[in-house]
Specification:
- The complex is a heterodimer of chains A (178) and B (104).
- By secondary structure, chain A is mainly alpha-helical.
- In chain A, helix 1 runs antiparallel to helix 2 and helix 2 runs antiparallel to helix 3.
- The radius of gyration of chain A is 22 Å and the shape is globular.
- Chain B has one domain: Helix Hairpins (Orthogonal Bundle).
- In chain B, 74% of the residues lie in helices and 0% in strands.
- Classes of the chains: A mainly alpha (178), B mainly alpha (104).
């Protein structure tokens, strides 16, 4: 019963955070709601006994991605006026309609089966198998090539981000030097 | 009543559709970018839920795939925000409706 209460609270926090992040007109408030959503989701991961993923979620999303988005807002919008951060929406009605349609398409085929299906019970062995040590062993053994590709991707993304973000400025500097 | 698999799946579907709503109905490129992040996180919740209630949790497929997704999403958001800044430098705006040079 305790678990269910925690689930509903965390679900409410993450859904409200996501809704506010998406619908809020003030962009900075939206990003803070997004941080709340990330933390709520980390709590859900913790509830599902994936504690390492929960920590990574807070570290990467609430720590890095949120701050990065905040910096991008500060860099792109003029921080002078009150209306500078405001976002206008476009086709709100059609957006809501399409996402509602997708939601129903996902849920409708299965929703009548929910009372009849037998619930898969979570295994208790999960507690000792999901430690960081086990995770590391399973990460290295079959997925070593994937990790190397991922490292390459992250390096490429870093270099690409720097190049894309300062591309115009660099060429201007070269022209000035000539 | 205990916590069941379908609770997590329905919550993930709701979060995915909220992200979809944001990606469809906003004009600001940054809001669209973080709507995509919300959708990716909903997918992560599905991975973890299926791992927790699945048949072979000791293989740890769910957390491993979630780790890969998080790494790819981090790379995506870094490049995406760099592109947003580059677009802003060029057009002086991040409004997606104003980026219609290709149409002219």
């Amino acid at each position: 019963m305790n678990e269910v209460t925690a689930f509903w609270m965390l679900a409410a926090i993450s859904v409200l955070g996501a809704l506010i992040a998406v619908r809020k007109r003030n962009l900075v408030h939206g990003v803070f709601a997004l941080l709340v959503f990330f933390v709520g989701l980390a709590g859900l991961f913790l509830l599902l006994l994936a504690e390492f993923i929960a920590v990574v979620q807070i570290l990467v999303y609430a720590g890095a991605v949120g701050i990065l988005i905040l910096f991008a807002i500060m860099l792109t919008d003029r921080v002078t006026g009150r209306d500078a951060f405001r976002v206008t929406s476009r086709g709100s009605f059609w957006g809501a309609l399409i996402s509602l349609a997708v939601f129903l398409v996902i849920l409708l085929p299965t929703i009548q089966d929910i009372p009849t299906i037998e619930n898969p019970t979570p295994k208790e062995t999960i507690v000792e198998t999901s430690t960081v040590k086990q995770l590391g062993i399973h990460l290295i053994k079959p997925y070593i090539i994937t990790i190397e590709i991922l490292a390459l991707l992250l390096t490429a993304a870093l270099v690409g981000a720097v190049t894309a973000a300062q591309g115009g400025r660099a060429s201007e500097n070269e022209e000035n030097n000539k | 009543m205990t916590l069941a698999l379908h609770h997590c799946l329905i919550l993930a579907a709701v979060l995915f559709c909220i992200g979809l709503l944001g990606a469809f109905s906003r004009r600001n490129a940054i809001v669209v970018l973080f709507s995509v992040e919300i959708m990716l996180n909903a997918a992560n919740l599905n991975f973890i839920a299926f791992w927790r209630y699945g048949t072979n949790p000791e293989l740890l497929h769910g957390p491993l795939f979630t780790l890969f997704t998080i790494a790819v999403a981090a790379a995506e958001v870094a490049v995406g925000l760099a592109l947003v800044i580059a677009v802003y430098r060029h057009f002086r705006s991040v409004d997606l409706e104003s980026l219609d040079t290709l149409k002219e």
